[in-house]
Amino acid sequence: MEFLTATTSHAALGIIASFPLGERQTSYVPLEEARGRILASDIIALEAIPPFNRSLVDGYAVKAKDTYGARESTPALLIARGEIRAGEFTQQSVGDGEAIYVATGAMLPEATDGVVMQEHVRRSDADLEVTRSLRRGENICFAGEDVHEGQIVLEGGRELTPFDIGVLAALGITRVPVYGRPKIGLISSGDEVVPVCEAPSPGKIRDINTHTVSNVLAAKGCEVILAGIARDALKEIEEKLLMVRESDMILLSGGSSKGQMDLVTTAIEGLGGTLLFHGLNIKPGKPTIFASLWGRPVFGLPGHPVSCAMVALRFVLPMVQRLRGQTPGSGEWTIRGKLVTNVPSSYGIEEYVRATIEREEGSTKVRPIFAKSSVISTLSKADGYFVVPEGKEGLEAGVEVEVFPLA
Amino acid sequence: MEFLTATTSHAALGIIASFPLGERQTSYVPLEEARGRILASDIIALEAIPPFNRSLVDGYAVKAKDTYGARESTPALLIARGEIRAGEFTQQSVGDGEAIYVATGAMLPEATDGVVMQEHVRRSDADLEVTRSLRRGENICFAGEDVHEGQIVLEGGRELTPFDIGVLAALGITRVPVYGRPKIGLISSGDEVVPVCEAPSPGKIRDINTHTVSNVLAAKGCEVILAGIARDALKEIEEKLLMVRESDMILLSGGSSKGQMDLVTTAIEGLGGTLLFHGLNIKPGKPTIFASLWGRPVFGLPGHPVSCAMVALRFVLPMVQRLRGQTPGSGEWTIRGKLVTNVPSSYGIEEYVRATIEREEGSTKVRPIFAKSSVISTLSKADGYFVVPEGKEGLEAGVEVEVFPLA
Question: Which candidate in B102, B152, B163 is best for mutational testing of the A interface (most A CBs within 10 A)?
Fold first, then answer.
């Protein structure tokens, strides 16, 4: 039975990583819409940040050397001349033994290389006593200290954070080159599945997978095209596949029974597609299909909601990352902690175990949630999941595991 | 000088946590738009999930007791009668010594309490040999095993994840009670600041804070109302405050110099507001103001981009959480790791240090980024920040710190 020759998780991820994809579409979006998008090219600074030497405090711009050795009891004596406000352009220069009052953010006069904070001076008319020795550069941001001209400030393939947007703003970049959002066609299937808006008659259940998967994808910046629910009939599955043939990837959930899997594989092959793997040595999630159809990646996901969600997180998201143009592995956080109980598992199968995390002083505890793969409510309760490798027969209490956050 | 009587971080968070807020607005949104919203009330299941005993596999529904003791060499002998497909309503019942073929997801006939997988039977016509003993409940999800009627499945105050949406879908909840998105008025100020679309003349810089802060807020589900840039003039600051008086909270960035802070406090008090704190014992972020104006919280944020961002993350977001109706502290992840270098800090000041995280086998390393508070590019490079408590003069290499992720 073909289904029993399951592909390993490792091999499956390799097949997904090497699936040939076309060129990503790129476009420019306004800075206001760039958060969460994937930067399509390196951003090179065409100017320096800051563009001039700036004061970081309210105080007196001086030549630092004029303050060397100054103390409360033996202050340095300077002459205060004028003031520079924030935003003001100045061509003033400062001679030896002179100082100019500058506000926070103000441009510094030429030849000054430090700012004495107001707390460290005594002033009487133009006479200024500096009661503290200043280091060169103290309380100053030099021109180009943040970003110098020609510097690569952000690398292509990054998901743009609020702080990246700040860097782009600083450089005056109001149109940002980003990759297009992947369009993902999503099909649910199964005679037992009804849309959420319908009351299921006895024997039927509501369509959960469309909702979890579409939201997982939307959270990762995808556009989801919902094709609805296909009955367990070859013609319906083919019709739904054709409906979303223009998408960048197609996901079909619900082929968990032998009969359903056969329909899905027959439909894919009938439309000219090629199966790349068919059955994984993972739990939950064994009845997973991956294929190439019309040059596009197609996943057949298990019908059980937890299995479907786990395969989406573990196998579909790496492909989403590729379709987005995102640098692999970037922006992923895991939490390390110690198992509070033994976790049994089957040798030869990679298991995904939902868990909650408990933070204590000096240690992080991971508590497995043992539940069947049909129990969707555990995904709500779990903080994340950890992996029991296929080469292990379970993990012992106290072992450190790496938890992948769910949300 | 009033500014020097800085409020502690702890006291400031207490003031923010106890600021009196009005009732949150609630509304119903379609399930398709509910991700990331805050659930406004507990969700109680009005039905069981699953609504009937379901098979988790393809196989034969049996009475488990009929298989007790079965082995490869001494199989249990049963009579196979008919088949139930997924989605089919059945009123069949199974007698002692009988079995019915069921597909994955199918409703189980009454009186059956286990499903033998196909791999563990031998069949010839109606004669079925079961080669393995079954536990009661094996390969079944019993009615209500996921969610039972009357159970609180999701608690109000949660930020809805894709998996919560799945639970709501399972229950047929297509309209979801959520709190309204907070409306945040955002003002930038300073004579030195120009909008991003303008080329700054010498002495001026582009407005960064509007972009970082608005994106931090948008990422947390806020609606941001941009009031633009106020010059350093009382009248302009008052006008901008009045422009956004209908928002749930007002943020004004840019009051880092003594002169600018005075203008901001004068404007707030002139419009009838009350200062609640004015200067924090933190670094970066000391020149932070918090006030009540028109019954709404108002923050005066520092002008330096990093200071502004840190105060937004550390002090504004807890207020955002309250305005959203979110359960405090929920959905926050931190990463624990060991410092790779000593970190100096000033006694009596709580310091926030940006850092990168390096994962190694068995350990997590935290590498501080030392940079001035004007250097926005470090926020792009940092994975997060950690806190040096005010009671410490620095932290030593090897100490474990808790890193708050930035993005």
Answer: B163
Task: Quote the minimal CA–CA distance from B39 to chain A in Å.
Answer: 13
Q: Across all residues in chain A, what is the average pLDDT?
A: 94
Question: Which of A136, A173, A211 is the best substitution to test chain B (most B C-beta atoms within 10 A)?
Answer: A211
Residues B186 and B311 in one domain: yes
| A118 and A130 fall within a common domain | yes
Distance (Å) from the alpha carbon of B1 to chain A's nearest alpha carbon: 10
Average pLDDT of the segment spanning B108-124 = 95
Domain count of chain B?
Answer: 4
Q: What is the ipTM of this complex?
A: 0.94
Burial of B133-169, coded b for 16+ CB within 10 Å and e otherwise, reads: bbeeebbbbbbbbbbeeeeebbebbbbbbbbbbbbbb
* Structural domain boundaries enclosing A306: 2-24+181-324
Q: What is the pLDDT of residue A331?
A: 67
Query: Nearest chain A Cα to B159, which residue?
Result: A407
What token pair was written down for A197?
């808006």
How far lies A301's CA from each of A200, A307, A316, in Å?
22, 8, 9
CB of B114 less than 8 A from some CB of A:
no
Among A141, A220, A126, CA closest to A181? A220
- pTM more than 0.90: yes
Mutate to test the interface with B, among A257, A263, A378, A400 (most CBs of B within 10 A): A257
Q: Alpha-carbon torsion A334, A336, A339, A344, what sign?
A: positive
pLDDT above 70 (res A207): yes
| Residue B317 backbone class (left: φ over 0; alpha: ψ -120 to 50; beta: rest) | alpha
- Cβ–Cβ gap B172/A206 under 8 Å: yes
Boundary of a domain, candidates B141, B164, B193: B141
pLDDT at A1 over 60: no
Query: For the residues B217-228, what does the mean pLDDT come to?
Result: 97
> Measured between CA atoms, how close is A32 to chain B, in angstroms?
8
Is residue B256 within 8 angstroms of chain A, CB to CB? yes
Q: Would you tell me how many other CB atoms lie within 10 Å of the CB of residue B6?
A: 20
From A220-229, A356-365, B216-225, B329-338, the region with the lowest mean pLDDT: B329-338
Q: Are residues B238 and B374 in the same domain?
A: no
pLDDT in tens, B32-79: 999 999 999 999 999 999 999 999 999 999 999 999 999 999 999 999
Tell me whether A286 touches chain B (CB under 8 Å): no
Kindly list the residues from chain B whose CB atom is less than 8 angstroms away from the CB atom of residue A147. 377
